[in-house]
């Protein structure tokens, strides 16, 4: 059994180990411990996905122009926040990208906050989750760069003057490849540290001090989701902008 295996992870390993091994087998991969292939971060991530899907399914039939509910009001506030942030960053025609940025923010936020529930932990405490989100963002902004500019998108790597290209191309390549690493380390390190500090104080003292650190944890959760999203917006803006 994995050290510190959560109760939900233990249930997955007791009942769904065969499913996990079968999926890994499709990719010619093998779990480190085939008897316990499920890890906490993956189970927590699936739980967050399930919660978000159930929430979306419950909201959809209740959408109303005349009598919007409280949850719809909340989602509309988030939608406005995403669009305003894109405008502040300088992204034109932000409606094309709002679904990705909104999903990214809410997904990271939910994963950051779920660790406050006793018996659960934030999947962003594992480097695998921030890395996957960072790689998805890397592919996303480069996709839109090529989508908007075609092969001319590669000219952004050459610098403003053609004879600087031999110098600028390696610098730009390294800069772009460093972005996933930067996004990964920033989210992982902050959430891991925050989770450890909150857990330590909650186990050491009671009531007042834990409440303060739980409030700090919520603030960090929102802040890290926002930073990840706005950096993704900046990367997209740089990829699709015609200024370059």
Task: Summarize the SSE layout with pairings.
Blueprint: H1 7-15, H2 17-26, H3 40-59, H4 70-89, H5 98-113, H6 128-149, H7 165-204, H8 208-240
Helix pairs in contact: 5-8, 6-7, 6-8, 7-8
How many angstroms does the end-to-end distance come to? 53 Å
- The total of beta strands comes to 0
In total, how many domains does the architecture comprise?
2
Quickly give the structural class.
Answer: mainly alpha
Order of helices and strands: HHHHHHHH
Overall mean pLDDT: 89
Radius of gyration: 21 Å
User: Uncertain spans, ≥5 residues at pLDDT below 50?
Assistant: none
Number of helices: 8
Tell me the major beta sheet: none
How does the overall form come out from the CA principal axes? Answer: globular
**Could you tell me the strand content as a percent range?**
under 5%
Oligomer: single chain
Q: What helical percentage do the residues reach?
A: 55-70%
Summary keywords:
single chain, 244 residues, 2 domains, globular
Describe the 3D structure.
With 244 residues, this protein is mainly α. The chain has 2 domains: 38 residues, no CATH class; 193 residues. It starts with 6 loop residues before the first helix and ends with a helix.
């Amino acid at each position: 059994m994995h050290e510190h295996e959560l109760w939900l992870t233990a249930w997955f390993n007791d009942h769904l180990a065969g499913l996990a091994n079968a999926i890994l087998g499709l990719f010619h991969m093998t779990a480190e411990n085939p008897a316990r292939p499920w890890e906490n971060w993956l189970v927590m991530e699936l739980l967050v996905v399930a919660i978000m899907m159930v929430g979306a399914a419950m909201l959809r039939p209740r959408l109303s122009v005349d009598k919007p509910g409280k949850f719809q009001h909340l989602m509309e506030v988030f939608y406005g926040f995403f669009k305003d942030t894109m405008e502040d960053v300088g992204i034109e025609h932000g409606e094309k990208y709002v679904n990705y940025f909104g999903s990214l923010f809410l997904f990271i936020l939910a994963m950051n906050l779920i660790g406050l529930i006793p018996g659960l932990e934030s999947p962003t405490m594992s480097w695998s989750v921030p890395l996957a989100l960072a790689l998805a963002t890397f592919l996303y902004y480069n996709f839109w760069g090529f989508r908007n500019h075609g092969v001319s998108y590669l000219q952004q790597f050459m610098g403003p003057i053609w004879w600087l290209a031999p110098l600028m191309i390696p610098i730009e390549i390294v800069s772009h490849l460093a972005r996933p690493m930067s996004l990964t380390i920033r989210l992982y390190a902050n959430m891991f540290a925050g989770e450890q500090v909150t857990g330590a104080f909650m186990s050491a003292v009671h009531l007042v001090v834990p409440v303060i650190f739980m409030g700090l944890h919520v603030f960090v959760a929102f802040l890290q989701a926002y930073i990840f999203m706005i950096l993704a917006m900046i990367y997209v803006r740089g990829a699709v902008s015609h200024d370059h």
